[in-house]
Amino acid sequence: MKYEPTTILSVVSEGIEKNETGIYSAVKRDGKWIETTIDDFNQMVHDLAMGLYELGVRKGDKVSLHAENSTEWLVIDQAILSLGAVVVPIYTTQPGEQIKYILENSEAKVHFVSNDEVFAETKPLIKGVENVKAIISILGSNHNKLKTFDDILEIGHKKGEEDPNLFDKLRSDVQPDDLATLIYTSGTTGVPKGVMLTHNNIAGNALASHEIFPFDPKEHDEPKVLSYLPLAHMFERTASYIYAYVGVPPYYIDEVEEIRDDFQTVKPIYMVTVPRLLEKIVTGIKVKGQEFSGLKKQLYYWAVNLAEEYDPEDPPASWKWKIADKLVYAKIREMFGGNLVGLNVGGAALSPNIARFMNGIGIYCGLGYGLTETSPVLTGPPVGELRIGSSGKPLVDVELKIAEDGEILAKGPNIMKGYYKMPEKTEEAIDKDGWFHTGDIGHIDEDGWLFVTDRKKSLFKLSTGKYVAPQPIENALVNSGFIEQAVVVGSEHKFCGALIVPNWENMKKRFKSTGHDFPEDNPTENKYVIKRIQKEIDKVNEELSKWEKVKKFKLLKDQFTIDDGEITPTLKIKRNVINEKYKEQIDSIYAEEEEES
């Protein structure tokens, strides 16, 4: 079905009527879960909107939000939108200079921060940002110039009593084509670009995406979803509107390192994720088998291997699966809380092995595709269908085509209005016929399923003339329990090389199991570590074309991090940063090649 133009406010309001749990959302703080009822949530949205109105926020004004996921984040979002104002979310990991740029470029009138710790890096820079008239701390502050969230609620509550019809009037003035948000893409190159998304861009995308969500809240006694991806990213944010629409409360964790415990406490039926978390979890599941011995170990790995060979079009014999399920899979599902029906994965390519494994153990795992500029979802697997390696089929109202050079082009009601104050960049992204150029390479099979190969800018050419898509190779490498991160290099060289960050925890376990001492001083130069990594690379190379094989590699001791600017907040590699920062290590991979020439 096609959807009539609508607003985010309408989608959320309609969903609140369906919510039978009584809880709008919950957040974990200091180890405790704090649930917020629907009535309290609605009251806070009303009061905060009126409080912001008293601060001078009007339709079209920009309000920035620099905070971790929380119920307050959702309240602030809905309050800003209720005024017809524009939400400008900022990642908590964004560096201070970028935040200053975003505040100035967006002309934000009011700036929200979660606490003094998050505000610390921005504080010395924000004094020069004249357009910011008020800074509000969500959880309180020691800075006397900052207003508090509670103060604004109190001001707004009084305003609501004085003018009880104002809130509803302002909300009714919000139209589908009104700008709802400016999302500054963290990007892997250049300065952040402000993606302009309207209410209908996002609301329509939420409704269309809802059609492919693999769960029905009515089939569960206490439906809950778990959330850890930043709400500043459109994937999680649009998901939050879908949760509201179907009436399921999201539970926001505070530390991703504690997610295994959170699975047990919350017992979610669903979550969205990026591939990296799943890769880590599945690696941990595989390594767990090393704790067993004898027949128990053999059965465990028989079941694991059976799951990794899962094919939705040719599932394993029922008797095999029932045995594996009783002995192994049921226990693995308990690690996810026991109620998890499904996962939707986005943000990057998902290793086919991970997809097979998750579906093989009885947890639906579907891969979707989209970008911030597309609100974000373009494709996903239709309910009841799955094709390993594919990102699914286009959503309702979305059109896709493949350009002559292999680039994926898209049209639909979810395509952004453009980049804020960047008309030239907008023209580069959206051609005269209205097609958005995604920057990704892929193909569509005869049944309409999309397969994404890599970012157009990530492709590189060897000196032999062969083109290499690094991401699939990297995904295969990190599927090893001994490899934490991998970056494939080789542009203008004869062969592919790689920078490898080993999984040191698993490596230490291997040394211990063989009775050897782990080389703490210089593990990257240890011959046994190098030999182990070479063995893992050899396994991957077996499945690659001759020119894609990783012939040499360099080990790195420390992981690539968001704080060091090496990966984005959604864990994508910033290749230009890596190539520059690790030039010496990359050059060493090709030193002999240079000598030969």
UniProtKB/TrEMBL annotation:
- MF-aspect GO terms: ATP binding; long-chain fatty acid-CoA ligase activity
Tell me where in this chain the AMP-dependent synthetase/ligase domain is found.
Answer: 26-420
- Cross-referenced PROSITE patterns, in alphabetical order? AMP_BINDING (PS00455)
Q: Name one Pfam family in it.
A: AMP-binding_C_3
What the entry lists under Gene3D superfamilies is as follows: N-terminal domain of ligase-like (3.40.50.12780)
Task: Provide the alphabetized UniProt keywords.
Answer: ATP-binding, Ligase, Nucleotide-binding
Q: List, alphabetically, the GO terms of the cellular component aspect.
A: membrane
Protein name as annotated: Long-chain fatty acid--CoA ligase
